[in-house]
Amino acid sequence: MRRVALILGLLVGCGRAPESGATPDVPPSEVAQSEGVEIEEPEGELGEASAAEPQVRATVILIPLRSFPDDLLDAVEQALQSELDVEVERHAAVELPKQAYYPPRKRYRAEKLLDFLAQYERGPDTKVLGLTEVDISTTSDPYPDWGIFGLGSSPGTTAVVSSYRLKRKPRDREHVRSRVATVAVHEVGHTFGLPHCDEQAVECVMLDAEGGIENTDTSSGTFGPKCRALLDLLAPP
Ligand SMILES: [Zn+2]
Ligand SMILES: [Zn+2]
Fold first, then answer.
1. 187 is catalytic
2. Which of 43, 156, 162, 222 would disulfide-bridge 136, Cβ 3.0–4.6 Å?
3. Separation of CA 69 and ligand 1 centre (Å)
């Protein structure tokens, strides 16, 4: 049990299949040290060039793993920019790593994809988001291999989102774009150290998927006030 708790503390899997009852909350201890962040007043005279520089929280590099449709990439880029105040860069597609393939279920292990994506890191202010159309999975005790929507290291620099399960029974294509964008904001939110939250009243994007598509479909796609404040503490823009 202890080993599982540690794994869940590092990797927060989201969107497990309906059988899963796991709700891996990350203990708040990891974020407790963020109090006391000081905001320095800019020096210099009013009207200097500093005001023209847009402030961004981080740069997120989008990396299609094998392939990812352009309209979904566009939706992810727009959502990350507007919800997380990040700069987005697009990397050329790269082939899925063989070492992440899981033959018994013919799909890819998400935590191994995160290991693979780590080679594209460029420092603490850069996040790497892999995007793929293939099915991905991870371990969710007691199940050795569970299909998921996405996985993000928390806190960390890498995350991965799969459209495979998000393409099931959509109302239309816009519905798929909306789901993929919501999961991308959620997983990148984890990389900034945000745990799952309890802001059901505002349908916060950091609610646990809790084993189905429903919470993704009802998500506001944006951060509730608690998560917004925590994000600003953990990663000031
Ligand atoms: Zn999550
Ligand atoms: Zn929240």
1. yes
2. 162
3. 23
